[in-house]
Amino acid sequence: MASGPGELAAAREKILRATLVHVPFNGWSKAALDHGIRDSGVKGPPARLAFQGGMDELAEYYCRFADERMLAALDDAAVAAMPMRTRINHVVRLRLEQAETEREAVRALMSWLALPGNQALGARCLYRTVDAMWHGVGDTSTDFNFYSKRALLAGILAATVLYWLVDDSEGREATWVFLGRRVDDVLGIEKAKARVRSAISKLPDPFNILGRGFPGKRPPDA
């Protein structure tokens, strides 16, 4: 009997949660997935169909699952009242706090995604996460800033995750201090660059100035 979309979705989440328990001991591996399927209680077609793509599919599903969990926990009204730097700090911290009980599984996943054959998948997951974060904090840019913002946040997130994975301070307080510095440094530089671009855009066109000395002519294009 074929599994319906709702049944399969529920099976995938159950299997994921059960598998994450085994990843710290078995790595991001088929062995961990097999243990997860067994412990989840999912049987029959849903068990066979849930992750036919193996660990690649499970990795992508976990990243999407974590993105959706993060967005569901954001308070839109509270976020809208925050300065942009605070929004970014808040959403990155939220993402990591939600993954606290999965930290060893995240460590194993990061190691697995760093392998040569998995790096493209890692890049896709990172892009989707920072895209979700920007949308979650109310960003609506559609110009070049759309891409530059995501590149900047990808750097902040990647560095903070690596720091978080080795942080043994109480409450991960050292991670939050590190995150705050990264956000201030990176977004501060970007803000300064924006001010420079704005100032330059207001300067008179030198070609127009030079052209006044040469009626009817404009310096040739380079």
Distance between termini?
70 Å
| Rg calc | 24 Å
Order of helices and strands: HHHHHHHHHHH
Given helix and strand content, the structural type is: mainly alpha
Helicity, in percent?
A: over 70%
The number of distinct β-strands equals 0
| Overall tally of domains | 2
- In CATH terms, the superfamily of the largest domain is Tetracycline Repressor, domain 2
- Strand portion, in percent? under 5%
Query: Overall pLDDT, averaged?
Result: 88
Low-pLDDT sequence parts: none
Give the class-level CATH name of the largest domain. Answer: Mainly Alpha
Task: Provide a count of the helices.
Answer: 11
Reported CATH architecture of the largest domain: Orthogonal Bundle
SSE arrangement:
Elements lengths: L4 H22 L3 H11 L3 H6 L4 H20 L2 H5 L3 H15 L4 H11 L5 H18 L7 H23 L6 H29 L4 H6 L11
Helix pairs in contact: 1-2, 1-7, 4-6, 4-8, 6-10, 8-9, 9-10
Describe this protein's structure.
- The relative contact order is 0.08.
- The chain folds into two domains: 52 residues, no CATH class; 150 residues, Tetracycline Repressor, domain 2.
- By secondary structure, it is an all-alpha fold.
- It is built from eleven helices and no strands.
- The radius of gyration is 24 Å and the shape is globular.
Summarize this structure as a short list of keywords or feature phrases.
mainly alpha; 11 helices; 2 domains; Tetracycline Repressor, domain 2; globular; single chain; 222 residues; 0% strand
